Amino acid sequence: MSNRQKPGFIESLAEALHLIPNLHDEAGADSPSISEPGALTDYPPPDQWDDWVENESQSWPQRDPKHYMVVPTACFNCEAGCGLLSYIDKETMEVRKFEGNPYHPASRGRNCAKGPASINQIQDTDRILYPLRRSGERGDGKWDRVSWDEVLDEIAGRIRETLLDGRNNEIVYHVGRPGHEGYMDRVLKAWGVDGHNSHTNICSAGARFGYALWHFYDRPSPDHANARFILLISAHLEAGHYFNPHAQRIIEGMMDGAKLAVMDPRLSNTASMADYWMPTYPGSEAAVLLAMVNVILQEELYDTDFMKTWVNWQTYLEKEHPDVPRTFEQFIEAIKVVYQEYSPEFAEKESGVPAAQIVDITREIGKAGSRFSAHNWRSAGSGNLGGWAVARALHFLNVLTGSVGTEGGTSPSGWNKFKPDVFDNPPAHKFWNELHFPKEYPLAHYEMSMLLPHFLKEGRGKMSVYFTRVFNPVWTFPDGFTWIDALRDGEKVGLHAALTPTWNETAYFADYVLPMGHASERHDIISYETHSGMWIGFRQPVLREAKRRMGEPVEFTYEANPGEVWEEDEFWIELSWRIDPDGSLGIKKHFISPYRPGEKITIDEYYRYIFERVEGLPEAVAAEDLTVLDYMRKYGAFEIEKTSYEKHMKVLDDDIMDGTTVDQEANTVLKDGKPVGVMADGAPRSGFPTPSCKQEFYSQTMVDWGWPEYAIPTYIKSHVHPDELDRDKGDFPLVPTFRLPTLIHSRSGNAKWLNEISNRNPVWMHTQDAERMSIQTGALIRVTTEIGHFVDRVWVTEAMKPGVVACSHHLGRWRREQDAKGNRWSTNLVDIQEGANGQWHMKVLDGIRPYKSEDGDSSRIFWSDGGVHQNITFPVHPDPISGMHCWHQKVRIEKAHDGDAYGDVMVDTDKSFEVYKAWLQKTPPAPGPDGLRRPLWLNRPLRPVDEMYYLDR
Ligand code: SF4
Question: I need a surface site. Which of 264, 359, 609, 692 has the fewest CB within 10 A?
């Protein structure tokens, strides 16, 4: 099988004359096909990956052939996990560059700018190379180098003591960028702690909750490549979720005739590529979507077969219209009336999008039918009070058009995501950590992580050992000064170990800073719902793998990585053994090799066990005479299913069918009185994992938990709705959530190429607003939030919706004089002063400057702007239902005051505590029905045993 295009005449001649290497050799006959052969495909063939020859680019015009080992791994610079090929100079054992891996089924050899920039991160001359222990007070910036042995012994001793005292809820692992596919859940379950905390409630919990209400799965998996109409509520083509794999397929779909519509108050790069741009007022998206629902119903553009079988309309009629005949026709008539209030004119009033455009787009969606793909991730779902209702309204369009799980439609995430079978499954723990899942938020889709410092302040609990992993709340979360306050307090946060590949604003306040590898320096598996298939990717430490191939295997990854940079996987195994050296705590037994009884599991064995159980992989491997582990080391990815449509149609197994009856009215299969499936096309089908096994238009859960007004998809007015603003006083809604396509939240500060491209975050303001306020591009403004202000410059543009302003959160990184010199491509040098009564001031002392280092480029820095840290001026706004932090801000904009300087920040943390308490009042706390803390059927990270769901147990 060839990986190559046929060479042209000139190319053949040049190859024959050895002017260029022969790029057209046949690959090994048994190698898998590259994911997407085509005119732009040009990769070294795998049979030459052990010794690939290229001329040294730095020696030009001399020809200086260099021998490389090509080792695949996976990018870690966003959640998409695209494939990378690393090129390792065999003479120096240095990684020289990263390119795309053509064998990766999602990214298919392509990357965004952040993928190849992984090389900047590993070559960063400021990087943390050794484990460090604080020597002064927290935050003093004084560190001593220590050995991994010391680190493991000290932390393990503390954890052991905490567990022996029964203080299991005081051990917490707080993750920023996750991954690991269940690895850490397994570790925490082995320790018996309810210790998982995440960043999800400042990221995606809003949209997730909206989807989960419909069908349990909390993410959409759109099949853009085969769609006829694509609707995005975000800047998804350039910066959304899984955006490189999605972007490729959106473009493919468009090249094949699909139309694209984008809702976004900014004319993002994505909106600029669209057939329709709908610059919605922030928070009005659900109103527009429900107007589309109304048009679909009135014009009868819905899919009767799908709706009739797969929507729980019978329950809706039973509960809301008990007196009408229980027929599908009656259901349609009833909801036609309900959604009539969302007329296109009403939606225009709320959103500013013309009613005629809404109708046009709806008709296109109706025409696309089952080939309608849609996505909403952070964006509106993460910005607004009730943002979860946007995803719920969007998915309603998929349900109406019968495009759930179809070719060209939108599948539930779980259908396209591989779940590993791990070698040992510790039992669920018997704890409930109320610092993560407090009573006030019984429906919170993930942990209430942004409230942690407030909970600590209120004395709701404390932490004995706190791991932060690739997590930087001081900078990324709202209310960062409150985080600093908590992290400095040894009574509240006992031992804080920051596991991080690079310095960050949170690590400055840790007790240990533990350098964990970048993308190419650690193990991991990845699988995401990037398209209609299912795949698994293997992230591996490439220098370790190169050494193994060269016959110099190492025991631990830090022996191959730069300095003593390690990886989490091995760290947790070693730590777990030291917590429980004699096995008396019952922890050690969960870290024993499945292949060598009684011996400690190795990382190779951990992944070998998983790969041996990946469907189809052992068979694929047999053709190459490799082990499964070697196959994944060689190619870095495997396609498990080419397409994964209509999984709800799976016929129920006989053992499930045993003892079942059929509810003729609801058309469901019942076992012990509860639905376990749905009758469809004459057979019992598995359906969806909801209480009704159907798509839940009517949510009994919302009714039972105190929100009957949201029993069906509705529009919720945002906290930044125009009713909340005083325009005459200069109020604006601020959209602070948009990503820049070339930056990563907290980890691109050490990537010089990326900071060269993007290094400032002005406030976007429409020309009309700027004229009205006599503000020009570059003018300094003061942006006042509920708890403080920041001073930024303005960018006056037509690409912003009038009356709305926006500012990217990707910039404004900082370090203080006493902090380690890290991320100097991006960090402003700042001074922070803490005044009386919770008043904090930050001033920029210096911007970005050229500096001398082993990297000659550091003396060529030409930019001086590091941007402004806006998030730290925001209070927490927890949505009372989903628990999502509602990012959008009502701000007042004025010209800068006398004495204001670019980058100034002022925050009153006493006020932020008051705002926290005010939002806390918005929610009816648990218990719900039967004394439950939260519904049993909804997912929960690190799920405890069911009895812990009951408040009185
Ligand atoms: S989209 Fe870009 S940053 Fe994200 S994994 Fe792919 S290459 Fe890396």
Answer: 359
